[in-house]
Phospholipase/carboxylesterase/thioesterase domain-containing protein
Amino acid sequence: MLPISQYKGIFGIYRALHLQLELLGGCRLGLGASKIRGNFFYSSSCVLFSVSALSILALPISLGDNMSFAGPSLASGGKTVRRAIEFGRTYVVKPKGKHLATVVWLHGLGDNGSSWSQLLETLPLSNIKWICPTAPTQPVTIFGGFPSTAWFDVGDLSEDAPDDIEGLDAAAAHVANLLSTEPIDIRLGIGGFSMGAATAMYSATCFAAGKYSDGSAYPANMSAIVGISGWLPCSKTLSKKIVADEAVRRAASLPILLCHGKGDDVVPYKFGEKSSRVMVSTGFQDTTFKAYNGLGHYTIPEEMDEVCAWLTSKLGLEGGSS
């Protein structure tokens, strides 16, 4: 039986879990992503929305399915052991026009790659190939140790919460691996929602530094980063990461878009705002922060329109053939 304190923690985050798993498009996204003449509508209850009504081109593929990474962790007695991390199914939305860019999009806590692929397929970005992986199912501290799909472990959303460096490195490495087979002339990007946004921001810092936190080389060449309703992991140590001249140059040249609702009661708005300030202060000069009055922990057409326009500009898609 769980201690009373853990039960309190579980019930304390019930609303957050409800928002991500019940309100969100396809019962997960926070946006009823049903396509009605090219538009989206918000559904306040997943009962009002049926995923089967969507016209979907997202195809499940074997790329990245059940891919495992392992990282070091400290066992009792001071011995180093490796924690196996097995990733779930990856979904791909093929470009409807000429393939000019590939973006890996990362879902939030408790979600999977399928639901976001359904939304991304409806966006007017015909030159982008979307890769939507599914996070590993693993125990999550904020859920009292209950398993959930999560890119890394999280115990608390606070200034002093410890970062799961091993999980973050494994997630960032998985994303980089998904991009490793893209043609050399294709522009690459990473985006995400909530915990997925946090992973995208962490990947941005690895790209700039040229390495993961464990010291191994980061292989992908990023052209754009998007984070919706997220936060920046390892923010207190970021300045130590962006030191070398090449790291400073990469950070300054990487376009980043961060969006956050002022009514977000899951990942508070102040975390998104502070993440933007930290990114800028540590050298990520091309960082844009967009705030949305009254927006909670979900997305809306206005926000996705902003993402589309920004990606079109930063990835050079204006002249792309459809």
Observations:
- The first helix runs from residue 4 to 12.
- The radius of gyration is 19 Å.
